[in-house]
Write a structure and sequence with these properties.
Blueprint (H helix, E strand, L loop, with lengths): L13 E5 L3 H12 L3 E5 L3 H20 L5 H10 E4 L2 H5 L4 E4 L5 H14 L5 E4 L19 E5 L9 E6 L5 H13 L3 E6 L6 H17 L5 H11 L6 H8 L1 H14 L9 H8 L17
Parallel strand pairs: 1-2, 1-4, 2-3, 4-5, 5-6, 7-8
Antiparallel strand pairs: 6-7
Helix pairs in contact: 1-2, 1-3, 7-9, 7-10
């Protein structure tokens, strides 16, 4: 791995988010709302438009509920723009956050492309929830500026940010992203690079067992979830949480952890595979373990 060709940015004022999907638009929203000049990039112009529309809708809903001030909404919309031109989107970025599907080859290609156009000192971060950073880091020319920033859905509401430190991540990079987390109003944890990190590994273990119980007819999805919300004070049951995260996302994480850690403990239950194969991906598709209106 080569030595860094330029100092890592110590202050983050300009951010580019790669991928305008569920996580990407949410990350772009909180970045812009915190005052950073933010670009939401996707190769699909329609995806960019949808992402920006969702940001506006989230902010409008926040204002209506008294959770967001008119001033914050105005700042966020003023500081956010969309782009389908990668070179333009990352040209002056202090931080680039990748938020695309959990496909290592895709992520590696994106980081190689970003590195060719972003400033030499820009921090490059992945929002992966399960892929070990060690499988991605060699796509980045200067590994000291590579880090994991695992946000949680919905990004504008969830306070946790899991900061994943690769073996190569420098102290300066870590300090910079922790300061950025504070600017977003997030409460970060720092974990060592490991499959599933801390949050996905623990959350998935509970979710997979809940799926097996549902599959075996132990109880209904609603009653399994109620056991955890009322009995253990979880804010949301494991099956409803799976619907929120996305069954396809949970399947990808399970397959990664089964391969990287233990093929028995993290084996995806058949009900999860069947629902994903049927296109029942949870809330975003209208049906998963529950059915959703609208």
């Amino acid at each position: 791995m080569s030595e860094p060709s330029a100092p890592v940015s110590s202050a983050i004022h300009r951010v580019c988010v790669i991928g305008a999907g569920t996580m990407g638009h949410g990350i772009a929203q909180v970045s812009a709302a915190a005052g950073a000049a933010t670009v939401l990039f996707d190769i699909d112009a329609d995806a960019v438009a949808r992402g920006l529309a969702k940001v506006r809708a989230n902010l409008d809903k926040g204002v209506a509920r008294g959770k967001v001030t008119d001033a914050t909404r105005a700042v966020a919309l003023d500081r956010l723009r969309g782009s389908t031109a990668l070179a333009d989107a990352v040209s002056d970025a202090d931080l680039v956050i990748e938020a695309v599907p959990e496909l290592p080859a895709l992520k590696r290609q994106i980081f190689a492309d970003v590195a060719a156009h972003a400033p030499a000192g820009a921090i490059l971060a992945t929002n992966t929830s399960s892929i070990p950073l060690s499988r991605l880091v060699d796509a980045v020319p200067d590994a000291a500026r590579f880090v994991g920033l695992h946000f949680f859905n919905p990004v504008h509401i969830q306070p946790l940010l899991e900061v994943v430190r690769a073996a190569e991540t420098s102290e300066r990079t870590l300090d910079a992203v922790l300061a950025f987390a504070a600017s977003l109003g997030k409460d970060p944890i720092v974990v060592r690079d490991s499959p599933g990190f801390a949050s996905s590994r623990l959350g998935l273990a509970l979710g997979l067992e809940a799926m097996r119980m549902f599959e075996e007819g132990v109880a209904s999805a609603a009653d399994i979830d109620k056991a955890m919300t009322l009995g253990y004070r979880h804010p949301m049951g494991p099956l409803k949480l799976t619907d929120l995260v996305g069954l396809d996302v949970r399947l990808a994480i399970a397959e990664t952890l089964a391969r990287e850690i233990d093929p028995v403990r993290f084996a995806p239950p058949q009900v999860l595979r069947d629902l994903v194969a049927a296109g029942k991906l949870g809330k975003k598709s209208g049906e998963g373990f529950y059915t959703y209106e609208g």
